């Protein structure tokens, strides 16, 4: 039997847990969520979803407030957790042990499924090592068990998320998947709602999924041929150029200005080579050196440099992260017989998301940064930071660190 004093303590503790978000309120406490859910019915109906399917999916559906990137009324806004490719340094994300391990397993799977992968390449123009590398990065070749129910994730993000319209649309397509016979049990997802062995959002499933094994349905959950052919078709739809590479690692000339590592600074491959950008690996260069390329220095002067081609951006359309592309590209190169990055990654520090957002706002106020405030050390942030370093006579390295942020703050106070 619990005494009165212990009961009071439990009440206080329960209130504290609710206040910090450890205990999720029931959806009934937020009737706005239920109203929002029911208001989706006309749009779901337009996609061919029956009332029975809609009601079965909505019955008892409660938002999962433990997901990242939510804005919940009455709860302090949590710093975004973010995907690893956006919050880790290149050295952390591109760990040699991880790349080597996935590449070794990828080579075995490539050999095992060579005939299927060759057929995929003949149909879509995408080499087998590339789609195998995507498979490895997304779900460790299908061995990683996705932790969330897609319906719950997409409804939660559609109502409470920071990209409501985007996830609202994906939720509707997830309902269509249920209507079209995909079992709810198969619809396990990442916290962002991506499904299957190669991680497709529901709308991407309808745009790109393919029945490659000929059994009458596109199965990106259990059929390796379907999953990898679907990934290849998505890349093809996004503009993959058959017979072309994605990037070449290069050694840059001494004194290179890192602010020319700009996707808009395009030159033919032959011009880069003539200017002293030397391939870092013994990879054969294409016969046609007229293909436009730009320079990428993802860690500023603290790591490898790359001449990137159109197919680089096609992979980036699969996942909008430079580090993701480098991961997939390097693993695919290793599966095809290549090796590690020739230049090691420097031990640099990634600023906190809030600090990077502050840096972006300060650079934007100076007219140097014109992209969205997202707290990521992406291309545009590095270029704006490099431009600031040049203007202020600071050491030019194109990497956002705490010292430059302090300089920005001091300059702002001085003005």
From TrEMBL:
Keywords from the named record: Signal
Gene3D superfamilies linked: 1.10.530.10, Bacterial muramidase, PGBD-like superfamily/PGBD
Residues in the signal sequence: 1-28
Every Transglycosylase SLT domain range: 33-333
Residues annotated as domain Peptidoglycan binding-like: 354-408
Pfam families: PG_binding_1, SLT_2
Entry's Gene Ontology BP terms: peptidoglycan catabolic process
InterPro entries: Lysozyme-like_dom_sf, MltB-like, MltB_2, Peptidoglycan-bd-like, PGBD-like_sf, PGBDSf, SLT_2
One annotated GO molecular function: peptidoglycan lytic transglycosylase activity
PANTHER family per record: LYTIC MUREIN TRANSGLYCOSYLASE, MEMBRANE-BOUND LYTIC MUREIN TRANSGLYCOSYLASE B
Name recorded for this polypeptide: Lytic murein transglycosylase
